[in-house]
Amino acid sequence: MSLRLSSLLALGLLWCATGFAAGRTVTDSAGRVVEIPDRIERVYAAGPPASILLYVLAPDRLGGWPRAPHDYERPYLAAPYRDLPETGRLTGRGDNANLERVLRTRPDLIVDFGSVRDTYASLADAVQNQTGIPYLLIDGRFDNTPAALRLLGSVLGVPARGDELATYAETLFTDLDRALATIPDAQRPRVYLARGPDGLETGLKGSINSEIIERAGGRNVADPGASSQRRGLVQSSIENVILANPDTVITWDRNFYDTVWHDPLWAGIDAVRRGRVYLSPTAPFGWIDRPPSVNRLIGLKWLAGLFYPERLGSDLRAETRRFYKLFYHVDLDDRQLDELIAWTQGRDPD
Q1: pTM across the whole model
Q2: Model confidence at 69: pLDDT above 80
Q3: Nearest by Cα to 306 from 276, 339, 272
């Protein structure tokens, strides 16, 4: 995360207009004790992960999207919330909201969902001190998803909703862990995450962008080694991919997916020869990343079934329909399902 503290002229006037009044305290994931109103009507999402967390729990409290939905994403969002304004983001890549812009939305609360390291706690404190708006940091690690849903559900006054979604995540994690406990590492698929139109950007093992691979029982071939502290996104090379020779490739880039089957540089890689290149859905949010939020739960279900169809396979259409209804407040028709999952099962490379 990063933060742009700019354009602070007239900040004092805007601060006076917020009318914030504390009513209770809550301890966020960073251990910060924050005073929040008894009733929260409008929440500012500091970045895309937080906007999804807010949307699945209480969409009527979401003040706007950090980035307005694209046309292809809109049908997969509930109608009342597709047209919420674009509010910009305070944190992450491309942060573009200054504090005046935040204050003009008149939020009762700011929420960020992601890293809770000291740097980000300090940034949250700075924004809170300068705006007078309470700012909560919620741990965005994948395994913390149930706790995050329950924490924000309680804050927003929808604890039953938070518990319902948290139980879905816990059941998924528990079933997956039980199955994976019996599968030796040597028998797990060797997976490469291909980002971008050339497929050469990837996430190192342990990175938030690719942790879903390991969580689903795959082995990320972009592994810098146990002694390395490197994490995050890196630019690879086709030579490195050929050397790693993954048996499975996951991507969400349609350009890469369409061209990889006929690219002579990729032709000898096991995943391509065996037709095991899979295209992740991206509407209304990515199934494996972009952003790394609770949207990854359906991606985890999908990947686990791909990796271990006999043990963890399920009816993907039925599960997708159920997830979109439960989390995204939409009833998918057959055409929408077809468009979402058409390429999720790989294809014959010939």
Answers
A1: 0.91
A2: yes
A3: 276
